[in-house]
Write a structure and sequence with these properties.
This protein has 107 residues and is of the alpha+beta class. The chain has helices at residues 3-9, 13-16, 18-28, 35-42, 46-59, 81-106; strands spanning 33-34, 62-69, 72-79. It has six helices and three strands, in the order H-H-H-E-H-H-E-E-H. The longest helix has 26 residues, at 81-106.
């Protein structure tokens, strides 16, 4: 198998999905976001965001904390160390794909 094809196959399929990539990208830019902040940032419905967060949490990429602020429940989300590493690896793979594509176009 050629190196270019292998790079595509090595992309993390969980992160490659557009919605989850948006979530992880937003969380990578902040130490922690509330569910509402994250929902508004990525422009998803509550249900859609919940489903994506559940998948990311199951993989260990996102930690979800629930607490009370005053008398109101508040859910906050953050990337775990594994999530940051997975995101960095994903970006490295994308960069390698871009470089491969650029070098092919120059020849």
């Amino acid at each position: 198998m050629n190196a270019f094809k292998r790079l595509f196959e090595e992309l993390d399929p969980l992160l490659h999905e557009r919605g989850r990539l948006a979530i992880v990208s937003a969380l990578a830019a902040a130490p922690r976001l509330t569910f509402t902040e994250l929902r508004d940032t990525v422009g998803m419905t509550d249900g859609n965001l919940s489903v994506h967060l559940q998948k990311l949490e199951e993989k260990g990429y996102v930690a979800i904390d629930k607490q009370f602020v005053g008398r109101r429940p508040q859910t906050s989300c953050r990337l775990t160390r594994a999530g940051r590493l997975a995101f960095t690896n994903y970006l490295d793979h994308l960069e390698a794909i871009v470089q491969q594509g650029r070098s092919r176009n120059r020849t």
